[in-house]
Design goal:
Layout (H helix, E strand, L loop, with lengths): L38 H8 L2 E4 L18 E5 L5 E4 L4 E3 L6 H4 L17 E6 L4 E6 L1 H8 L6 E7 L2 E2 L4 E2 L6 E3 L3 E2 L6 E8 L2 E12 L20 E7 L4 H7 L1 H6 L5 E3 L3 E2 L5 H10 L3 H7 L8 H4 L3 H7 L3 E6 L21 E2 L1 H10 L2 E2 L9 E2 L2 E2 H16 L5 E7 L14 H13 L2 H4 E6 L15 H6 L3 E4 L2 H6 L1 H10 L4 E2 H14 L45 E4 L5 H17 L11 E10 L15 E10 L5 E9 L4 E3 L6 E2 L28
Parallel strand pairs: 14-22, 14-23, 16-25, 17-18, 17-22
Antiparallel strand pairs: 1-2, 3-4, 5-6, 6-11, 7-10, 7-12, 8-9, 12-13, 15-24, 19-20, 20-21, 23-24, 26-27, 27-28, 28-29, 29-30, 29-31
Helix pairs in contact: 6-17
Amino acid sequence: MFIIVYIPYQIGSTNPTPTHTLYNAKPTRKLNYELQGSLDTIKNETIAKHKTIDNKDSNDNDDDDDVDDERETVSGKLPLYYVENSKCRIPFIDPFAAEVMDHYKPEVFETCSNESDLVRPIFDITRTRYVLHINETLAAQKLNSSDVEYNCYYQEITRNVNHDSYNDPLPQIYFSQGYVVPLHVQGMILACHEAANASNVLQKDAYALVQYKPPPAADSKETTPRKPSVIMFGIDSMSRINFRRTMPKVYKFLTRRGWYEMQGYNKVGDNTFPNLMAILSGYLPDSAKEKVCDTDNKGCFDRMPFIWKYLKGAGYLTAYAEDECDINTFNYVKPGFVEQPVDYYYRPFLKAFQGEMDTWKCASCTLKYCIGRRVQSSYVYDYAKEFAKRYVDERPIWGLFWSSSFSHDSYSMPSKMENFTLQYLLDFKQDGVFKQSIVIFFSDHGARYGTLSSYSSGFLEERLPMMFIYLPPWFRAKYPEYVKALELNRNRLTSNYDLHNTLKHIVELGQLPSSPKLPKASDCPQCQSLFYPVKEIRTCAEAGISEHYCTCVPYKRISADWSDRIAHGVIGRINDYLWGRNFSSLCANLTLSYVHKTEIKIESNMSFHDELPTVDVAFYRTKFKVQQNSADFFATVLYNNATDHVDVNVETISRTNSYEEDSTCIGDKLAKLYCICHSLLKP
């Protein structure tokens, strides 16, 4: 009652190919291409600066997207810049540079269970209901007899409003073969056991269900334009550089026709929370506190003008799912939601699965790798598949499906999940998602601490998250001007706020011309939709990117003895910040251990290659270690060498190694970056 879709790979791949099962079986067609790739292959394809030939589609047939986008090689050398103009030069970084590749080792995929599913919910398309199918052959195998009786039950999972979590699982409901699941059941934990011995559990499993909601009655008075569905897949802490390095096959999939990489996409905040806030609401947390509400207060997120509210108002069905519940964007030291934010909200179910099922960490993992019988991220991706299959051919949908479990704490672990992730993309293609939908494959930032941050490219690795946008054939045919704009914007400076405005632009496309325009991103008045050409000469300030996160202007390392004074000044400002927030009684006073490096900003009137002139006031970047728990920091400051004055916004200072075990004495999400608890000081 299920199917497995296989895709072949080039012989010699380091990862075994994982397989996925589909909730409801449907005929498969042979995929007419084979993705083959290796680090060497992708590297060779990278060594060129390309100019994309405009491709135009005339119908909804997406078979032509199975071929590589035609490119014209302009040069046989590595490009020098992602973005290059008089105001912005973002240097190109070779993902396969020796300083990284000498230490990088791809990891091998591990399965959580080799067993088949004993019970699966199968969606009956005719009845539009889920039916529970019991694999009776497997049950007999596990009992070593077809005569021994067994019983199966499920427990419904419901949402706890007060804690944005789950209530205790409801009482057990026993079922038999072909049981039709009630419509109100959206999540369940189920198990089968020997009838005469309840402790002999044959198998335990967990599922979240996308119960069908019929479309509203059509309004025959006015016809609105076709509304594109939008599916957003996010992988935490993935720079465009490390993406090429650790997931070359997935990268190759995303370079096929219809995909557009925003190579000048620059983050606007330090960690996940501000970067997703900018995309989803158009606000950074500080400005949201001033203009809307304080995100530390319960109920604030329910008031925030998130993009899904506009989409829902335009007739979209909405979904939102994240893995690794302990660090969910709106729940990690944040109050979460009171009201369910979207039509299909995954957090309560995965929170229950995590709490009620066995979990396991692989040897190289810091976060949970398996929940029950499945890889943690598969719960989110399976939910995305169910959501898309249920509605993508029927009505417009929007969904954000975010994974942190295999990328947040390790720059190399995504290589373990390369074939796994690729197979899901192929499954989505099989299900028609790419025929109907705009797909956004992106990240919030790159590695903020750890091995990658220590390399010469570490500054760019952290600030340049991957960003790929796919347009389906029908959309490219209907809006060729938007295709041309995306082509132009590939190598222009863009930010989270531009993506926010693009999502609102998509909402407007499905409205009548007389409908009012939606408000653009509040924190970036000059930002715009990516469906319009971005200014070729654009500054970080115009894109809503602060100086600390801006990658447009190169910095050069200096070794002068006086440069240590900058780090001392920054530490003083951090201590003042903690004192001003009333955390000094809990957090230790920081003192300098040593300076890793100091860099000076090369202004337009300075030459990067010449000897640096003497200047009194300049921008600097300093990376240093403090004595307390060996915490590392990276700051961009305006420093006056004559007066010894340091000007820096403390909340833009990056913590470049893990602070999880240093700051448990306080709950403030930003202050945690800078606090070393007195009670947690190491000798």
